[in-house]
């Protein structure tokens, strides 16, 4: 029991705990109260998933992410394709076409070369599928017992579509909130494999590169205000971050949530809320009501947006908060999680 950890512990711990890496309130507090003061004037106040850089007359998106998923291979993917798709998607959420990636591997002494080769091949295959080049990288090895086989960091640069102005500050009252498909799939896929759970069917991760879907949405001519991929902390954490940044309220309809039966059943068994479970191949879009139908139509014609649906709207009430209308007609607050229900998912 000495090694047990809690992903959402008490918030006054003097040491780093698992909750600090969950993408919820503890992560935000760590950034706000430790990293930003320590960085001082060197820090960019925006601190988003992707930075937008102006180079001459060209706008570039730049992003970096680290992946510590356990186990390394899970139904529907590996840490390798997750590392590529995760950074590709962060770039896509700024309206960018991903171009190049860096890859850095931190390896534990004693890791099987066959297992590493399997991961590396997944990185290469995913990069080819996404149409990006792997242009630089690094490798480090840590002592046995001081890692979990393979950790990966990827950083990427993409070219932003000149028609796009996509950022969380642009969410506004009456915006329609769209999700591109079923939610909670990736987190349940990893957890079922990690814990040896069976739910009567195999739940496979939804990891996929989303820049093609984003390009199809932009091609409609719609003014897309916000795009985000709901990874750590799931849909709930992502919507709370957007609501806080834009100072708008968000009202959801629980009956509209696209949750597969196997995910709903697994979450019920494990005591989890699907809204807080990580996704790796889904996006959330905020668009004006006049543009919602054509954006949805474009999404429905793309393989990764066939189940896209409207799940809510931005409202003037309760700015900075997210609420959901329940199936019974009541309303509940959808809080920002303290930590993460399922740690080490991505």
UniProtKB/TrEMBL annotation:
Which organism does this record belong to?
Mycolicibacterium gadium
> Domain PurM-like C-terminal, which positions?
173-318
Q: Specify the protein name.
A: Hydrogenase expression/formation protein HypE
Please state the gene responsible for encoding this protein: hypE
Give the family, as the similarity comment puts it.
Belongs to the HypE family.
NCBIfam families noted in UniProt: hypE
Q: Which residues form the PurM-like N-terminal domain?
A: 48-160
């Amino acid at each position: 029991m000495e090694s047990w950890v809690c992903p959402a512990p008490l918030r006054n711990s003097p040491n780093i705990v698992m909750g600090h890496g969950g993408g919820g309130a503890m992560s935000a507090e760590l950034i706000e109260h430790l990293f930003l003061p320590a960085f001082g004037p060197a820090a960019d106040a925006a601190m988003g998933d992707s930075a937008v850089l102006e180079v001459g007359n060209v706008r570039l998106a730049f992003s970096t992410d680290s992946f510590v998923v356990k186990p390394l291979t899970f139904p529907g993917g590996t840490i390798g394709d997750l590392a590529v798709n995760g950074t590709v998607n962060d770039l896509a959420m700024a309206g960018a076409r991903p171009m190049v990636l860096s890859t850095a591997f931190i390896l534990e002494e004693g890791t099987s070369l066959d297992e590493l080769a399997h991961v590396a091949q997944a990185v290469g295959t995913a990069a080819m599928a996404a149409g990006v080049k792997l242009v630089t990288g690094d490798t480090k090895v840590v002592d046995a017992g001081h890692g979990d086989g393979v950790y990966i960091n990827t950083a990427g640069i993409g070219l932003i579509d000149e028609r796009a102005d996509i950022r969380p500050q642009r969410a506004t009252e009456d915006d329609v909130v769209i999700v591109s498909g079923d939610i909670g799939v990736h987190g349940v896929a990893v957890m079922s494999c990690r814990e040896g759970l069976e739910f009567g069917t195999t739940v496979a991760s939804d990891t996929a590169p989303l820049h093609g879907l984003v390009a199809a949405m932009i091609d409609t001519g719609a003014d897309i205000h916000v795009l985000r991929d709901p990874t750590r902390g799931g849909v709930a954490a992502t919507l709370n971050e957007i609501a806080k940044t834009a100072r708008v309220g968000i009202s959801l309809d629980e009956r509209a949530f696209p949750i597969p039966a196997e995910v709903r059943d697994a979450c019920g068994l494990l005591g989890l809320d699907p809204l807080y479970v990580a996704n790796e191949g889904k996006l959330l879009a905020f668009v004006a009501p006049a543009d919602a139908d054509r954006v949805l139509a474009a999404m429905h014609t793309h393989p990764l947006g066939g189940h896209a649906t409207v799940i809510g709207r931005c409202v003037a009430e309760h700015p900075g908060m997210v609420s959901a209308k329940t199936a019974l007609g009541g309303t509940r607050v959808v809080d920002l999680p303290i930590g993460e229900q399922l740690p080490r998912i991505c």
